[in-house]
Target: ABC transporter permease
Amino acid sequence: MTQPAALSRWARFRQSDLVYYFLKDKVAMACFAVFVFYVVLALLAPWIAPHNPYDATGYDIMDAELPPSWLDGGDERFWLGTDNQGRDIFSTIIYGSRVSLTIGLFAVALQLVLGIVIGLLAGYLGGRVDNLLMRFADVQLSFSTMMVAIIVSAIFQAALGGEFYSRYAIFMLVIIIGVSEWPQYARTIRASVLAEKKKEYVEAARVMGLRTPRIMFRHILPNCLSPILVISTVQVANAIMSEAALSFLGLGMPVDKPSLGSLISIGFNYIFSGAWWITAFPGVALVLLVLVINLLGDWLRDLFNPKVYKG
Model:
């Protein structure tokens, strides 16, 4: 009995407006293909990357700052050259993309959880709860996201110690970036809840005696997911850029476990000595990843806005 239901759901998905407009938009298809390519590289990094940049025994300091293999002085083992420690740039980009995507996706998941819970409580309960939560969000929004992330990162490193922070850098960055950017979700959810809670189906649920958590999460929340999907797409790109900026400032990933941002930071010190490839190739990879995610977010925003999207 479950197989026909699954097939019918798949058939409805194939016939949905999302699939229809996606197949008509070549830019969206190209961006999605590039994003999937990044995800596949990240998942299969141990098998695709010719070297493991996280293994100190796998690279030699004598191979430091070698140019790409097609330039004079290059080594055929290192297609995009090496960094200041002799690590293969191509392999480091693959592993760095894995780190950046992991931090971006999990940080957005944390933002999503915090924003949905706080936004639902503020919008549905109203009154003093709404004022307290929204004033707290307004205070955090009065500071730039990067400033909040830098402050929280500095507090974590001072309280937990540099060694502990480096060991759990990915987990720490997920918390830092997630805590820094939840107010956007909360404000969006709150605005949607204020409109939804006045509708008849919410009143009917109250008359039936359903509990408040069930009304909020089972009935109101599903009707507020469209703007959340758009915000999440853009926020993944913002989280990746935040991680890159923190790593560039020395508050992100440690040197022995480089991300795209930390690799750009390392190469910045050598760019004027002629080793431009250490910064250039990771920079291009980071810009391309953020660009395709932002373009997908713009497409989703237009798709869910019938006044703008024309197919």
Observations:
- The two ends are 37 Å apart (CA to CA).
- Residues 33-303 form a domain with the MetI-like fold fold (CATH 1.10.3720.10).
- The CA atoms of residues 99 and 259 lie 6 Å apart.
